[in-house]
Every structure is written in structure tokens, then in C-alpha cells.
Specification:
Blueprint (H helix, E strand, L loop, with lengths): L1 H18 L13 H9 L10 H5 L4 E3 L7 E4 L9 E8 L4 E7 L7 E9 L8 E6 L4 E2 L4 E8 L2 H13 L9 E2 L2
């Protein structure tokens, strides 16, 4: 019970920080992808992002189909030694989603509702290409992934609520500095 209360309080504080004017808070908060995804998605896993897949076994459902509120887990590779995690905020099609994540295009910053495209030969989301702000387009490199960790009904409802509140925003590559 105490853990759920802590998560709820942290989530409220986090959302308040996102709503604050970014100019006043520029560069005041540095986000790694895993702590951001934990707060944003409600999935309570810890440590390096690439280790989330193994940690989720027996705690959360996992699969290869994107769902609203699920967390896409990238494998650790040479250029991304800790892996990466990103929360699905919208399913566009069976091969395209929007995600919100941190520490991708810009060091320590949050990117909201950016495009991720399934680049796998089998359409199983085992490799993806991600919107990359500096080039203003989908990146050219395909990154290997494990798949999606499903947050459950409560987290999906929370993500849908956040997406509804953010209808005015959502431009590709728009970053928030907090």
C-alpha cells in the first residue's frame, strides 16, 4: 500500500513538472530513460533499461504487439550499453507507434509522442527505427528490441488520460526540458 502511495505521489509530482513552463526549468532536470519510463508508465522495474525485460518475467505480461501504455524495451548494444525504454502513447498502425521517452535525441531531455517504426523483417517489433530530433526524421539505424512490457489496465487508462490532455501538443521531435 505504501509503495502504491509513493508511486502515485511521484506520478503527480512528475506530471506537474511536465506542465510547468519549460523556460523557467530549462536544463534543471536530467532524465535517464529508465527512471522516466518507470514514473510515466507506472511499471515498477529498476536498473538498466536493457535488464527490464528479464525483470518483468512473472511480474508483467510481455509480448511483441504494441499497446497503449506498454513499454518498449531496447536491447543493450555497443552504442547503447544500458539499453533503452520508451512508453507507447499511441498506436498508429501495426508497424508504427508514438512513444514518450527520455535521453534519446537530446541528452537528458524528454521527447513526447515521437514516431517509432517497426523495422523487423517479420513485423514482430524485434528491430525499430526511432524519430531522431537532430535530423528531424526517423533515424537511419535499426535498434534491436525485446518487445513490449504491458503495464495493465490502470496504467493504460492513465496513459490515455495523459494523451487526451496533450492533444494540443504532440508535434514530432518536440522536447520538454523537464
Amino acid at each position: 500500500m505504501l509503495q502504491r502511495l509513493k508511486v502515485a505521489v511521484c506520478s503527480v509530482l512528475f506530471m506537474a513538472a511536465l506542465a510547468a513552463p519549460s523556460a523557467a526549468n530549462a536544463q534543471s532536470t536530467f532524465w535517464q530513460c529508465a527512471p522516466f519510463a518507470r514514473v510515466f508508465s507506472g511499471i515498477q522495474l529498476f536498473g538498466a533499461a536493457g535488464g527490464w525485460w528479464k525483470q518483468a518475467i512473472g511480474k508483467y505480461a510481455q509480448g511483441s504487439a504494441p499497446k497503449l501504455g506498454s513499454v518498449l524495451v531496447f536491447k543493450a548494444i555497443g552504442s547503447m550499453r544500458s539499453g533503452h525504454v520508451a512508453t507507447v502513447t499511441k498506436v498508429i498502425s501495426d508497424r508504427i507507434v508514438k512513444v514518450t521517452h527520455a535521453n534519446w535525441s537530446s541528452h537528458g531531455r524528454i521527447e513526447r509522442d515521437v514516431t517509432v517504426m517497426d523495422a523487423s523483417a517479420k513485423g514482430d517489433w524485434s528491430a525499430v527505427k526511432v524519430w531522431y530530433g537532430p535530423i528531424g526524421d526517423i533515424g537511419t539505424h535499426a535498434y534491436p528490441t525485446y518487445g513490449f512490457i504491458y503495464a495493465g489496465a490502470k496504467a493504460v487508462a492513465h496513459s490515455a488520460e495523459l494523451a487526451a490532455q496533450d492533444l494540443a501538443g504532440g508535434d514530432e521531435g518536440v522536447t520538454a526540458s523537464n
